[in-house]
Specification:
By secondary structure, the protein is of the alpha+beta class. It has helices at 2-17, 42-58, 186-196, 214-224, 237-250, 281-289; strands at 61-66, 73-74, 83-91, 102-110, 126-132, 136-141, 147-152, 157-162, 173-175, 207-208, 227-236, 254-256, 273-279. It has 2 domains: 2-162, Fructose-1,6-Bisphosphatase, Chain A, domain 1 (2-Layer Sandwich); 173-289, D-Maltodextrin-Binding Protein, domain 2 (3-Layer(aba) Sandwich). It catalyses: beta-D-fructose 1,6-bisphosphate + H2O = beta-D-fructose 6-phosphate + phosphate.
C-alpha cells in the first residue's frame, strides 16, 4: 500500500511544481462546497483524485474516507481487503497560490467492517504525511518509530534521509496564529505570555514560527521541538489530528485537544472538528497545566 501511496505523492509533487504554468491555481468552479468542507481549490480536487486512486490501486483497502468528500467510499475487490484509509489530500491549499508549503496526511486502520472512517485513533496502525516544499518529503510510521524519506528528483525515488526521528523533549518555538490573541481564553493567553517572556517552566524565551500550513508547522516542530497548535475547533480529528498525533507519539511527542489525548477521542462524525496541540511532551504537559486553552465558539475568520 505504501508503495502505491508514494506513487501518488510523486505525481502530486510534480503537478504542484508546475501549477502556475499549467493553470492549476485558483478556486475550483465545479460546484458549491459542502457545509462540512472548505472552499475547494482546483488542486484540492486533483490531489483528491490522485491520492484516492493510489489507495484503490494498492488493492489493500476496503474503504477510504477523504477530507474532500462527505461520505466513505467502499471499495469492491475480488477478495476481502485488510485495511481502511483516511486522508487529507492537500493540506494548506488555502495558501497554495502564494507558493507556501503544502502537504498530504493519511492514516491506516485494520478493516473492521463497522463504521469505516470512524475508528478511534488509538486503533491506527500506520500514518504518514508528505511535505511539498523546497524538497518533497514523505514521513512515515507503521507503529515502530518514525522515518523520513526525501524525493530524489534525479532518479524519481524516495531516499531514507531521516531515520528514527525523535522530537526533542522540549523545544523553544511555538507555532500558532497569535494575531487571534484577544479571542483566546485566559489560560492560553497566560501560557503564551509566560513562554514568550521566559517565565514558563523552562525559563527560556520562546520564538514564534507560523506558516499556517499544518504539515509544514508540524514538520518543523517534529524536528526542533516546541508546540504547533490551533486552539479553535477547526482541524479535523479523522483526517488531520489522528494521523499527526500518531506520528507525534511514535516520535516521543504528544497530541492533545488541550484536555485529552487525541488518540483517545472517538470521532462523532467524519468531519468532527476540534482544537489541536501537537509537540514536545514537556511543552504539551505545560500547556495543559494552564487549564483553559481551547478557543470555544463559532467565530469565523476570512484570512
Amino acid at each position: 500500500m505504501l508503495l502505491s501511496v508514494q506513487t501518488g505523492v510523486k505525481s502530486l509533487a510534480h503537478l504542484l511544481s508546475r501549477a502556475g504554468m499549467d493553470n492549476l491555481l485558483g478556486v475550483y468552479e465545479g460546484g458549491p462546497a459542502s457545509p462540512e468542507r472548505d472552499e475547494a481549490k482546483k488542486l484540492d480536487v486533483i490531489a483528491n483524485d490522485l491520492i484516492k486512486q493510489a489507495f484503490i490501486d494498492s488493492q489493500c483497502v476496503s474503504a477510504i474516507a477523504s477530507e474532500e468528500e462527505d461520505a466513505v467510499q467502499h471499495i469492491t475487490l475480488g477478495r476481502q481487503a485488510a485495511y481502511e484509509a483516511v486522508f487529507d489530500p492537500l493540506d494548506g491549499s488555502r495558501n497554495i497560490d502564494a507558493g507556501i508549503p503544502t502537504g498530504t496526511i493519511f492514516g491506516i486502520y485494520r478493516a473492521t467492517g463497522s463504521q469505516p472512517g470512524l475508528q478511534v485513533g488509538r486503533n491506527m496502525i500506520a500514518a504518514g504525511y508528505a511535505l511539498y516544499s523546497s524538497a518533497t518529503m514523505l514521513v512515515l510510521s507503521w507503529g515502530s518509530g518514525v522515518h523520513g524519506f526525501t524525493l530524489d528528483s534525479g532518479v524519481g525515488e524516495f531516499v531514507l534521509t531521516h531515520p528514527a526521528m525523535r522530537i526533542p523533549t522540549r523545544g523553544q518555538i511555538y507555532s500558532l496564529n497569535d494575531a487571534r490573541y484577544f479571542d483566546w481564553p485566559e489560560g492560553l493567553q497566560r501560557y503564551i505570555d509566560d513562554i514568550r517572556q521566559g517565565k514558563g517552566q523552562s525559563a527560556k524565551q520562546y520564538s514564534a514560527r507560523y506558516i499556517c500550513s499544518l504539515v509544514a508547522d508540524f514538520h518543523r516542530t517534529l524536528l526542533y521541538g516546541g508546540i504547533a497548535a490551533n486552539p479553535r475547533s477547526h482541524l479535523r480529528l479523522v483526517y488531520e489530528a489522528n494521523p499527526l498525533s500518531f506520528i507525534a507519539e511514535q516520535a516521543g511527542g504528544k497530541g492533545s485537544d488541550g484536555k485529552r489525548r487525541i488518540l483517545d477521542i472517538p470521532p462523532e462524525k467524519l468531519h468532527h472538528r476540534l482544537p489541536l496541540f501537537l509537540g514536545s511532551p514537556e511543552d504539551i504537559d505545560e500547556l495543559e497545566s494552564y487549564g483553559d486553552v481551547q478557543q470555544i465558539g463559532s467565530k469565523k475568520y476570512t484570512v
